[in-house]
Amino acid sequence: MPNRKRGVKTLPALVLASALGIAAALLLCQLLWAESGKRRIQSLAHTVLLHSESVAGNVSDAVAALERSALTGCSDTDLAEMKRLTFEYRFIKDAGLFNPDGTIVCSALWGRLRSPFHVGAPTLKTRNGLLLWIRTPSYSIPGRSIDINGTPRVFVVTSPTAFASFENGAPELSVQVTSSGGRVLMRHFGRIEPGGDQLSRREVRACSQRFDICVTAQIDSNIFSPAYNGMLVLAGTLGAILGAVLWAVLVSLFHRNKTLSAKLTAAIESDEISLLYQPIIMAASGQLMGFEALARWRDKDLGEIQPDLFIGKAAELGLSTVLNRSIVCRALRECAARLKQDPHLYLSINLEIDALLDQSIVQLLLSETGRHGIAPRQIAIEILEGSTIEISRMQAGIDEVRRLGFQVFIDDFGTGYSGLAYLGRLNVDKIKIDRIFTQAAGTESAAAMILLKIFEVAKDVDTGVVFEGVETAAQMRAILAFCPDALAQGWLYSKAVPLAEIAPAYQASLSG
Ligand SMILES: Nc1nc2c(ncn2[C@@H]2O[C@H](COP(=O)(O)O[C@H]3[C@@H](O)[C@H](n4cnc5c(=O)[nH]c(N)nc54)O[C@@H]3COP(=O)(O)O)[C@@H](O)[C@H]2O)c(=O)[nH]1
User: Fold this and answer.
1) Looking at residue 386, which CATH number applies to its domain?
2) How far apart are the CA of 294 and the centre of ligand 1, in A?
3) Number of folded domains in the chain?
């Protein structure tokens, strides 16, 4: 029954996730398609502009040639010369002369007109001084309109097929050729709609440096048009699958998190968190000086869980105190014999600063060391440098613990936000320099310079130093060069292991 209930809830959620996936996929597809359309019209606008410039250049040259010619009127010689010029220029359909009163009386193509034709005022005077009559009534065929370019003396008619190669373009494309101010529309293919850059519409504009011409190209890349049905179905299907997969991943993460929380709670309560120990060595002699307790949790279903993860999770679940108490008790129980056997050894335990300020943990440390007959001096509490707790409160807690005989170390020094000034203000026994600095030893990096600086300041304020994360003999040699009595911890000597595997001395080969 419960499974059926869950199935009933699952189906609408799955349908909703798929629907959201479809919507997201279609939206993404539309945006990508519109952007690819923009690249298409950029190239189209450029091509049309180049073509418009060559038409305008051809027309200007023809007008200049007519101006230079010795035409005086509409004699047969004049008409022959006009014809010659008309044939010479590719984008010119006809050429002729204006009367001084602004009327047309003859042209190369139509010869002498039966009656003078009045063209009226020009539509535009270009910045090159050319007069344009756009879509003005034809002087030869009634009802037709033509484009005339000229001066007050001569004119040419632009060939109506000058832009024929751009006619009958794809239906989603529109192009218009205008004067540079956009006031006069010279040519258009398709209709430019106002408002580019909507979901589907993109627009580009390109203007000529040489002529009074601008080209605007627009594309309406709407994936919902019937032409793109195939793409629509593919994108929708992929979106539905992705939405469903994402939903399944989120649900499984949520369940894993819930499972992790439940399992961790059970593991802490039944004292299943175990400890490994990593040796801390006097590098010059290889002598064992102490060991750090590092928590481990292996779940039979989830496998090995990183300490960062389960310690953070325990804090989220409000289980930090229970976990800390179990770690303190286990560490002292497991290490008591070894510490008593060798009184110069110490055991490091990681505790958050809040735990150090928690009287119940301090009392536990006292009672457990007393119960096992361990000197408090043999216990070092490692706290993190970066903490939001006020420094004076922190120092009061540290002082109290040190007064009881325990040592206090600052862990991962250099990675917090407090900087070197912190060292002078906090009274601790040792700092543990983080491995990002240790591992830079002997290199030319900024981290290597910071490492030296940290070491100098620690020496000035008479605080001991442990170099964490030493992995290579070269790093160790470089550290020994400036700190001959360095304490070191790292994989060069040993990873964290069961206490029984920790030897009294570690002869790391520092040569080679
Ligand atoms: N509050 C508590 N924090 C704890 C406890 N146990 C562990 N931790 C913290 O979890 C972090 C990760 O710890 P871990 O995965 O155990 O990693 C430790 C070492 O294994 C690792 N290490 C040691 N030597 C090297 C090395 O040479 N190279 C390398 N890449 N890693 C190395 O460093 C970790 C020890 O770090 P630190 O504590 O800073 O000395 C870590 O922050 C633990 O503090 C716990 O019981 N309580």
Assistant:
1) 3.20.20.450
2) 6
3) 2
Q: What is the pLDDT of residue 23?
A: 93
For the question of an ipTM over 0.90, the answer is yes
Domain boundary among 251, 270, 289: 270
For residue 505, being part of any structural domain is answered with no
Same-domain status, 69 and 213: yes
- Pocket-testing residue among 278, 291, 294, ligand 1, by greatest number of atoms within 8 A of Cβ: 294
Instruction: Average the pLDDT over 32-40 and give the result.
Output: 90
Q: What is the rounded average pLDDT for all residues in the chain?
A: 91
Helix, strand counts (H, E) of the chain:
12, 20
Using CB atoms within 10 Å of the CB of residue 512, give its burial: 0 to 12 exposed, 13 to 18 middle, 19+ buried.
exposed
Tens digit of each residue's pLDDT (9 = 90 or more) over 98-141? 998 989 999 999 999 989 999 999 999 998 899 999 999 999 99
Can you tell me which atom of ligand 1 is nearest the CA of 294?
Answer: 6
Looking at the fold, whether 159 and 97 belong to one and the same domain comes out as yes
Q: Identify whether residues 411 and 400 lie together within a single domain.
A: yes
> For position 2, what pLDDT does the model report?
44
Q: What is residue 19's predicted lDDT score, i.e. its pLDDT? A: 93
**Measured CA distances, 357 to 336, 401, 423, 424 (Å):** 24, 9, 19, 21
Q: Tell me the CA–centroid distance for residue 499 and ligand 1, in Å.
A: 16
In a domain, 229, yes or no: yes
Q: Among 350, 435, 479, which is best to mutate for testing ligand 1, by the most ligand atoms less than 8 A from CB? A: 350
pTM, entire model: 0.62
Q: Do 53 and 141 share a domain, yes or no? A: yes
Domain range enclosing 116: 13-270
Would residue 7 count as lying in a domain?
no
- With a Cβ cut-off of 6 Å, ligand 1 is lined by 278, 292-295, 307-308, 311, 327, 350-352, 411-412, 432, 435, 468-471, 489-491, 496
Residues 210 and 327 in one domain: no
CB burial of 319-355 (b: ≥16 within 10 Å; e: otherwise) equals bbbbbbbbbbbbbbebbbebbeeeeebbbbbbbbbbb
Q: How far is the CA of 251 from the centre of ligand 1 (A)?
A: 31
Residue 386 lies in a domain: yes
Between the CA of 511 and the centroid of ligand 1 the distance, in Å, is: 27
Residues 327 and 453 in one domain: yes
Q: How far is the CA of 505 from the centre of ligand 1 (A)?
A: 21
**pLDDT tens, position by position, 146-187:** 999 999 999 999 999 999 989 888 888 999 999 988 889 999
pLDDT at residue 1 in the model: 40
Distance in angstroms (rounded) separating the CA atoms of residues 377 and 3: 58
Report how far residue 150's alpha carbon sits from residue 98's, in angstroms, rounded to the nearest whole number: 9
Residues 6+ apart with CB under 8 A from 254: none
d(Cα 443, Cα 434) in Å, to the nearest integer? 16
Confidence class for position 417, pLDDT limits 50, 70, 90: low
* Domain boundary pick from 229, 245, 270: 270
Residue 258 and residue 278 in one domain: no
For ligand 1, atom 11, the nearest C-alpha belongs to 308
pLDDT at 387: 60
Amino acid at 369: T
Name the pLDDT band for 321 (thresholds 50, 70, 90). Answer: very high
Same domain, 311 and 383: yes
